[in-house]
Specification:
Order of helices and strands: EEEEHEEEEEEEEEH
Mean pLDDT: 96
Low-confidence stretches: none
CATH architecture: Sandwich
Structural class: mainly beta
Largest sheet: 6 strands, antiparallel
Number of strands: 13
CATH topology: Jelly Rolls
Distance between the termini: 26 Å
Helix content: under 10%
Strand content: 35-45%
CATH superfamily: Jelly Rolls
């Protein structure tokens, strides 16, 4: 297993070891010791999976406020996405900065997103299956989002078709108007 750091500290790409032959392939998608060896010590408690039928759908930017903030390990098992992590920790040297990584069934990469970061993705193909592990259970009371096109963040999503967004995402507040409670050093 290989860790590739991104421009955002603690957000990293994980490249699994893939063993293949003419029959197909095998890979470990999670191994607690192997992840700890590359500096990821989150204890995952829930697995989630989503399906998106259409290319160009944007989901995000989502997070859960403390006390139920979540670290995420995300990957794609069918299709491809542009996956985005945004630093939402007030006081952080990288506050409001973002990183985008292509995740696909073909490249088998995963992205680790620590607590204190928002997350979103845009589908690059039709028929996308997206899987993620989280280190805290879902909490309706702490579930939050910020507007995908917040100019203070400036994620370059490429062309976005408003009809492919959920109502939750089109009506999400700007970061400045949100009650995001992440503080650098406290998450």
């Amino acid at each position: 297993m290989k860790r590739i750091d991104t421009k955002l500290p603690d957000v990293c790409i994980v490249e699994p070891d893939v063993y293949g032959d003419q029959r197909g392939y095998f890979m470990e998608t999670y191994n607690q010791k192997a992840f700890a060896d590359i500096g990821i010590t989150a204890t995952f408690v829930q697995d989630n999976q989503s399906f998106t039928a259409t290319k160009g759908v944007l989901r995000g930017i989502h997070f859960q406020n403390a006390p139920h903030a979540q670290a995420k390990l995300v990957r794609v098992t069918r299709g491809a996405v542009m996956d985005v992590a945004v630093d939402l920790r007030r006081g952080s040297p990288t506050y409001r900065q973002w990183v985008a990584v292509e995740l696909s069934a073909e490249n088998k990469r995963m992205l680790f997103i620590p607590r204190g970061f928002g997350h979103g993705f845009k589908t690059l193909t039709d028929d996308v299956e997206f899987c993620y592990k989280v280190d805290d259970l879902y909490s309706c009371e702490c579930d939050r989002g910020i507007r995908f096109n917040d100019p203070a963040i400036g994620v370059d999503w490429g062309e976005v078709t408003e009809s492919l967004l959920s109502q939750k995402d089109t009506t999400a507040p700007l970061l400045a108007d949100s009650d995001c409670n992440f503080v650098y050093g406290e998450i």
